[in-house]
């Protein structure tokens, strides 16, 4: 296992326990390093997003899937954003693009989609965790909207998914960088 | 639904196929390659589906699935799986492979290997012949669209059909669907996938899973490649453009056009007035928004319409299109009447005076109108009244009454500006009917206390007055049909589309087209004869009357929508009048009028970091440009270089100096002068025999590429981009001279000398090409170059290929430098001269509390925005526009107040009570500490209590030997509380947990 793939597996396992469903048939494809879920009835689901969606499907928390077609599409697109953009932003410039864009988006939205947390929020919270761990307080002040969202998400999910809390300042502590 | 895409983006295939498959109605908007559509994404990402206004799906896969779900809802995990496979696994390698083949012409074998593995996997999965149980689902369209470019055309993976038979039968089934064929027609014309090149080169390449891939040999060997393809503002000198690759076909084409192209080169068209449309030709009617007469235009006004339209029409003439460029001054309306009263003259005299000022300014800027007219001519009255009668006859004029102040002595209704009185909000006793100068709030004239007539000081009374309305809702359907067709095939800037759509979306309302004024076109209708037409009803008719004063056969232009293409150039503030109201008048009149086909709207040009302001004397105004001693062409060049094409830009003297010295003097001027001096000094001013080497033809191929892009950009009215093409050509020329060193060759052997002759003579021909290409931008400079080269007049056509215009034996004239260096002291002087006086500061003493620079900047912005709002009100601009600008003003004021530690003033009457309430509240921020960083004791107390309570709970749990997970979660809560407490006390929360230190200082 490379480290990031193990992280994906851990995420899916904690998601499963949060949703109260079994992730018993979840394995990592040895060759492709992709999580695979054998969901029964001959159905095999591959990939972080697909497995996460399948786990929600099997659970009783259907509201995480979004309620309208528009919401479901918006959730899908942010889930894709997580795997093609967030997970693959390994260089500093890509990381700051992710922070800048999500910050801009969340300056007008409480959650990524709609008016309550959805799977998009959970998956992005888990995905952005690695980036937020490394942020300085000055950077947290710079990306204040996505930090507000992240802090909100960790108060909802961190303990249930055994994630350590990341500290955020609640007031501006640096002058002259806000604008 | 609306799909935004750049031209030739293969990712649009799937979305269009899905749209066509479902038969849902949608519109397709073509964007520039690097256009940003989604406001919160900083990079380019196309295509984008706008599901409903301002709700975007920026993932093409998601968009495809969403569209199909509209028809038939599914929640199939197998579709999830395939879409994820496509985006995560397939796309990164697929795009890399396509870029390597179509852009770099050098297939990347590593990506190809990966692709083959992925195809093998897909082939195995397809043994059941379909991807999922659902027929024609999102997975089918998504994979079909991605695989198309590697299965068909220039980047085809050879032999795939034999290797992957399952894929083949699945692919062919999908590919044969009619919706897929329609999508292909729209994206890949004629199945030629090389048209995907530009988009592939601009759109971001999907990121890969690991960093290591980024250092692969293919990318490493040409790290500059992608960067160089894009126009770069200031290329580093060592960046060689000559080393760019050209394909053998390009080189062959360049060779042919150099050797034989002159025979195909078209002759310049003779322009004989009056110019009239000709059938079978491109007939372009180009208009620039009519400048309002009582202002002296500033540089922002000039680039906004007249100059932009001038460049475009000069370009059209050089392309031998049949075109006519018209403009004029807009003269009627309240503002002129007020100004006339102020100066104690008649409105007519005011207009005569200012029309002359305008004409002189445009003359100095070398604007080549075919007709510069004015709206106060008899033709205007005749045509406006005729259009009105037709609207009336067709039932599009309605009547209603409006409450207004009437002066009993002057016997007339008063426009808002003509009323003075006491502000109902702040009690200021010299408030105007549109706005109070005391508190700056916008007013309604009938709300003023003790209103007085501005002219006679008499007391006006509220009376109702009958007015005429243009019934826009009734014409809406005609308008929509026209606009939909034009949006599809015309060139419309994004802002023009957005503003127009937002008007239509909000629903059109009847608009008052009459006013109680004297200075205007009389309303001819019985019972309304003491009124005139609203200035915005008649202003655009000025285009028609200007044409009518140019030729009596004006109807050939204006009642000929089949043969004439109408191009409007304007600033974005004028968009609704040109795209909604004027077209409605013309469509409603139902007289076969020519209605707008293309619209190029600019954003705003700022001056340095503030706005142009007449009252404060900030910025350069038309008549002052001449006094700077800098030639008009330099102003033209710079204004076009910073043309606010897709966002606001600004005129900056430092940048002006830099662009003149680096681009004009050191690049363009240097190349042309150097080439000509060599011909003159070393070869007696005579063009030599030219024996071109393969390297020379390579240069020609690169020049042809820039030339093609220049034409393409001009057709799209991307005037900024075309300038960059010109500069790239002269940069190529400079590097060509540098690489060949004719100054060394000329001292060498006989054959070296011949080579030197070839190099400088080719360069002189390149200078000829440049003299034609710069003509739309810098007509006087173009003349000078052509004079020095003694070019034949036949060269003044823009042709798609570079041909030899100066044959061996041609004698050139005397070269001299084209541009002058602008020195820093000169720039400092100009900066100071046009800086203007600072805006009045009412709260100067308090301002010292905040950051003085910031305060000054904001104060200036507030003043400028206040002026803008006043102007808009004066011009009776559309309510929505005014409201928007007022909102901006309020936001600025609030920012200023925040900065100075005052409660924000609320604007507008409706908010005044609220403002008072708020101002009584002490300022407490929502966080633990107050805004200035002091510790909020209440919050600290609350948190301390919470921490001790949570501490007790944890201790209890531990002593009870509770479940570990329970204890852990409660401990986490405790730690969080402690962190919050630390922050509230102004301490470093990280110190608590022993985490890593932070970099910044704490205040």
UniProtKB/TrEMBL annotation, chain A:
Xref: InterPro entries: Arc1-like_N (IPR053836), EEF1E1 (IPR042450), Glutathione-S-Trfase_C-like (IPR010987), Glutathione-S-Trfase_C_sf (IPR036282)
A Pfam family: Arc1p_N_like
Listed SUPFAM superfamilies: GST C-terminal domain-like
GO CC list: aminoacyl-tRNA synthetase multienzyme complex; cytoplasm; nucleus
One of the GO BP terms on file: positive regulation of DNA damage response, signal transduction by p53 class mediator
Domain annotation GST C-terminal: ranges: 54-174
PANTHER family xrefs: EUKARYOTIC TRANSLATION ELONGATION FACTOR 1 EPSILON-1 (PTHR44490:SF1)
Protein name: GST C-terminal domain-containing protein
UniProtKB/TrEMBL annotation, chain B:
CDD domains in alphabetical order: Anticodon_Ia_Met (cd07957), GST_N_family (cd00570), MetRS_core (cd00814), MetRS_RNA (cd00939), WHEPGMRS_RNA (cd01200)
Uppermost EC category: ligase
Ranges where the GST C-terminal domain occurs: 72-208
GO MF term set: ATP binding; methionine-tRNA ligase activity; tRNA binding
Biased segments, Basic residues type: 264-275
Its EC number(s): 6.1.1.10
Protein known as: Methionine--tRNA ligase, cytoplasmic
Biased composition regions of type Basic and acidic residues, renumbered to the chain: 210-219
GO cellular component: aminoacyl-tRNA synthetase multienzyme complex; cytosol
Signal peptide residues on this chain, from the entry's feature table: none
Taxonomic lineage: Eukaryota, Metazoa, Spiralia, Lophotrochozoa, Mollusca
């Amino acid at each position: 296992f490379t480290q990031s793939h193990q992280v994906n597996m851990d995420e899916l396992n904690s998601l499963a326990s949060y949703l109260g469903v079994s992730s018993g048939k979840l394995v990592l494809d040895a060759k492709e390093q992709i999580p695979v879920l054998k969901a029964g009835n001959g159905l095999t689901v591959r990939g972080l997003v697909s497995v996460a969606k399948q786990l929600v499907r099997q659970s009783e928390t259907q509201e995480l899937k979004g309620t309208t077609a528009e919401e479901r599409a918006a959730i899908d697109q942010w889930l894709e954003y997580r795997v093609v953009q967030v997970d693959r932003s390994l260089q500093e410039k890509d990381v700051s693009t992710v922070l800048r864009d999500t910050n801009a988006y969340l300056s007008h939205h409480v959650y990524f989609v709609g008016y309550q947390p959805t799977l998009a929020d959970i998956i992005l919270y888990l995905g952005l965790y690695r980036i937020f761990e490394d942020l300085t307080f000055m950077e947290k002040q710079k990306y204040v909207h996505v930090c507000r969202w992240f802090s909100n998400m960790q108060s909802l999910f961190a303990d249930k998914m055994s994630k350590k809390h990341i500290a955020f300042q609640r007031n501006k502590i640096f002058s002259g960088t806000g604008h | 639904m609306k799909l935004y895409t750049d031209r030739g983006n293969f990712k649009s295939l799937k979305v269009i196929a899905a749209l066509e498959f479902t038969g849902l109605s949608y519109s397709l908007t073509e964007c520039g390659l690097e256009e940003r559509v989604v406001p919160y994404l900083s990079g380019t990402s196309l295509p984008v589906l706008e599901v409903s206004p301002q709700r975007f799906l920026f993932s093409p896969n998601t968009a495809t699935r969403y569209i199909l779900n509209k028809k038939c809802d599914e929640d199939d995990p197998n579709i999830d799986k395939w879409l994820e496979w496509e985006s995560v696994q397939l796309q990164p390698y697929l795009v890399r492979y396509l870029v390597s083949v179509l852009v770099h012409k050098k297939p990347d074998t590593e990506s190809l290997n990966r692709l083959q593995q992925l195809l093998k996997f897909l082939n195995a999965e397809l043994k059941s012949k379909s991807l999922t149980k659902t027929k024609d689902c999102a997975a089918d369209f998504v994979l079909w669209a991605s695989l198309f470019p590697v299965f068909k055309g220039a980047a085809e993976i050879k032999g795939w059909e034999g290797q992957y038979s399952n894929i083949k039968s699945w692919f062919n089934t999908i590919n044969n669907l009619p919706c897929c064929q329609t999508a292909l027609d729209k994206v890949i014309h004629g199945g030629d996938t090389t048209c995907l090149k530009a988009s592939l080169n601009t759109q971001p390449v999907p990121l890969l899973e690991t960093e290591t891939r980024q250092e692969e040999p293919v990318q490493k060997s040409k790290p500059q490649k992608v960067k160089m393809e894009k126009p770069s503002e200031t290329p580093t000198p060592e960046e060689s453009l000559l080393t760019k690759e050209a394909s053998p076909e390009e080189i062959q084409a360049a060779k042919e056009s150099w050797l034989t192209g002159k025979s195909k080169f078209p002759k310049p068209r003779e322009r004989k007035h009056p110019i009239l449309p000709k059938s079978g030709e491109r007939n372009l009617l180009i208009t620039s928004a009519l400048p309002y007469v009582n202002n002296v235009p500033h540089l922002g006004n000039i680039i906004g319409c007249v100059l932009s339209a001038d460049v475009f029409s000069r370009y059209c003439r050089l392309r031998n299109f049949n075109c006519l460029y018209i403009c004029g001054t807009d003269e009627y309306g309240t503002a002129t009447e007020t100004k006339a009263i102020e100066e104690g003259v008649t409105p007519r005299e005011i207009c005569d005076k200012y029309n002359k000022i305008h004409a002189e300014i445009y003359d100095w800027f070398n604007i080549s109108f075919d007709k510069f007219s004015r709206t106060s001519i008899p033709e205007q009255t005749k045509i406006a009244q005729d259009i009105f009668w037709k609207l009336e006859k067709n039932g599009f004029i309605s009547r209603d009454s409006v409450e207004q102040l009437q002066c009993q002595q002057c016997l007339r209704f008063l426009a808002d500006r003509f009323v003075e009185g006491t502000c109902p909000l702040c009690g200021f006793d010299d408030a105007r009917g549109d706005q109070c100068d005391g508190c700056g709030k916008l007013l309604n004239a009938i709300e003023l206390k003790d209103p007085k007539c501005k002219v006679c000081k008499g007391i006006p009374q509220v009376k109702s007055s009958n007015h005429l309305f243009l019934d826009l809702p009734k014409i809406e359907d005609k308008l929509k049909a026209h606009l939909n067709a034009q949006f599809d095939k015309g060139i419309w800037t994004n802002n023009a589309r957005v503003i127009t759509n937002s008007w239509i979306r909000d629903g059109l309302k009847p608009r008052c087209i009459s006013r109680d004024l004297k200075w205007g076109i009389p309303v001819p209708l019985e019972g309304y004869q003491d009124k005139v037409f609203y200035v915005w009803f008649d202003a655009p008719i000025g285009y028609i009357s200007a044409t009518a004063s140019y030729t009596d056969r004006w109807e050939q232009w204006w009642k000929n929508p089949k043969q004439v293409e109408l191009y409007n150039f304007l600033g974005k503030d004028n968009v609704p009048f040109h795209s909604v109201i004027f077209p409605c008048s013309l469509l409603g009149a139902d007289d076969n009028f020519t209605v707008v086909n293309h619209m190029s709207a600019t954003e705003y040009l700022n001056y340095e970091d503030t706005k142009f302001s007449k009252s404060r004397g900030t910025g350069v105004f038309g008549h002052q440009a001449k006094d700077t001693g800098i030639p008009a062409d330099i102003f033209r060049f710079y204004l076009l270089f910073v043309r606010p094409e897709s966002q606001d830009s600004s005129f900056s003297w430092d940048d002006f100096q830099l662009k003149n010295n680096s681009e004009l003097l050191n690049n363009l001027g240097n190349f042309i002068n150097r080439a000509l001096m060599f011909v003159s000094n070393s070869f007696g001013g005579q063009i030599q025999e030219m024996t071109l080497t393969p390297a020379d033809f390579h240069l020609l191929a690169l020049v042809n590429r820039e030339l093609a892009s220049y034409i393409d950009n001009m057709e799209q009215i991307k005037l900024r981009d075309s300038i960059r093409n010109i500069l790239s050509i002269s940069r190529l020329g400079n590097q060509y001279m540098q690489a060949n060193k004719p100054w060394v060759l000329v001292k060498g052997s006989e054959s070296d000398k011949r080579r030197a002759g070839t190099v400088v003579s080719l360069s002189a021909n390149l200078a000829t090409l440049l003299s034609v290409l710069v003509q739309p931008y810098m007509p006087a400079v173009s003349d000078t170059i052509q004079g020095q080269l003694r070019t034949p007049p036949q060269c003044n056509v823009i042709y798609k290929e570079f041909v030899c215009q100066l044959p061996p034996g041609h004698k050139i004239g005397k070269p001299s430098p084209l541009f002058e260096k602008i020195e820093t002291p000169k720039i400092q002087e100009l900066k100071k001269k046009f800086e203007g006086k600072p805006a009045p500061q009412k709260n100067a003493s308090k301002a010292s509390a905040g950051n003085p620079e910031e305060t000054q900047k904001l104060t200036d912005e507030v003043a400028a925005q206040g002026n803008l709002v006043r102007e808009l009100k004066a011009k009776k601009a559309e309510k929505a526009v005014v409201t928007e600008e007022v909102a901006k003003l309020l936001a600025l004021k609030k920012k200023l107040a925040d900065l100075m530690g005052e409660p924000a003033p609320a604007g507008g009457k409706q908010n005044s009570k609220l403002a008072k309430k708020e101002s009584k509240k002490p300022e407490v921020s929502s966080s633990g500490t107050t805004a200035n960083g002091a510790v909020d004791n209440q919050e600290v107390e609350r948190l301390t209590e919470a921490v001790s309570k949570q501490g007790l709970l944890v201790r209890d749990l531990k002593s009870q030997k509770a479940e570990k997970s329970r204890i852990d979660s409660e401990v986490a809560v405790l730690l969080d509380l402690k962190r919050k407490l630390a922050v509230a006390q102004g301490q470093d929360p990280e110190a608590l947990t022993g985490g890593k230190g932070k970099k910044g200082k704490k205040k």
